[in-house]
Amino acid sequence: CLNYKPAKLLELKTYLPLLDEDQRIAVHLRFWENLSIQEISNFMNISWDLANEIIEDSILELKNHFNQEAQ
Predict the structure, then answer these.
(1) pTM: predicted TM-score of the whole model, two decimal places
(2) Using only C-alpha atoms, what is the Rg of the chain?
(3) Is there a contact between 58 and 67 (Cβ–Cβ < 8 Å)?
(4) What angle do helix axes 37-44 and 48-70 make, rounded to 10 degrees?
(5) What is the per-residue pLDDT across 30-65, written as a single tens digit (0 to 9) for each?
(6) How many DSSP H helices and E strands does the chain contain?
(7) Please, what's the b/e burial string for 30-53 (b: 16 or more CB within 10 A of its CB; e: otherwise)?
(8) Rounded distance, CA 36 to CA 69, Å?
C-alpha cells in the first residue's frame, strides 16, 4: 500500500481533492477504513473490476501529483 511517513501522508491528503468523487470515496474506504476491494465494490454498487480500476487509477494519479511536487 502507501508506505509514507505520517508527514508525507498529510501532504498526500492535500492531493485528494484533485481526485473525482468516486476516486476519493474508494481511496478513503481502502486506505483509511481498510475495506477490501469486494467491500468497496459492494458499498459503491459497482463491479469488483471497476472498484479495483478506480483505486489503481487513483493511486497513479496521487503518485504523479506527489512526484511532481517533489521535483
Answers:
(1) 0.80
(2) 12
(3) no
(4) 110
(5) 988 999 999 999 999 999 999 999 999 999 998 888
(6) 4, 0
(7) bbeeebebeebbeeeebeeeebbe
(8) 30
Residue with cell 501532504: 11
Phi, psi of 3 (to 5 degrees): -110, 65
34, 41 Cβ separation under 8 angstroms? no
Which helix H or strand E contains 50, and what residues bound it?
Answer: helix 48-70
Q: How far is the C-alpha of 24 from the C-alpha of 31, rounded, in Å?
A: 11
Residue that has been written with the C-alpha cell 474506504 in this structure? 29
